[in-house]
Amino acid sequence: MITTTKGDMDESLLEKREGTIDNDNETTTWVEYWLEGELVHRSAHVQLKRAVVSFGETAEF
Amino acid sequence: MANTQCMTNSFKVDLFNAVHAFNATGIPAHTLATADVFKAALYTAASSLGTTTTSYTSATTEVSGTNYVAGGVTVTFGTAPSNTTTTAFLTPSASITYTNVTLSTSFDAMLLYNNTNSGKNAVAVFTFTAQTVTAGTFSLTMPTNDATTGLLRIA
Hints:
The complex is a heterodimer.
Chain A: E1 2-4, E2 7-9, E3 15-22, E4 26-35, E5 38-48, E6 52-54
Antiparallel strand pairs in A: 1-2, 3-4, 4-5
Chain B: H1 9-16, E1 38-44, E2 73-75, E3 82-84, E4 87-90, E5 96-114, E6 122-141, E7 152-154
Antiparallel strand pairs in B: 1-2, 1-5, 3-4, 4-7, 5-6
């Protein structure tokens, strides 16, 4: 069953579209379910690749 | 042996744990007996979050939509800050997940902030390709918690 804007629906009744975005910053996958040309479900999952880094330094006298 | 000028590795870990307070100005008025609660809020692609973002309350254009609670969700830090050689690192121990939400306005940023601190001070901003969610789930999966890929690192 898929959660949709019209309530839970059997996946077999829906058109499924999927995609992936892969770059230096992230790997993102998304899935959409369409019903008669209407988007009724979209989920996205992001795997972050790039962290935030702070560099600590000491000064010379 | 020779002496080496440096910032010690232990100090970098201590920064994550608020061990040091060099000056009374700016010390938050809360006990450090327990860990603070951190949250993750999502922001629209029209936002301007960045290095000058100081707090959750100062950030505007947070997303809104069905089942999304303003302020975002709690982030779990189940693993203590650590260090490998010269880099201290810290990563949430679980994915950050917004379940069964509808967010129609595209969003491309997450603000990690301290929800215990009265100022709701900002920690970091993470960006990604703009997304929308329709009656679905949005999740941010964490990288491996180490000195190379840990989400927050002090090198």
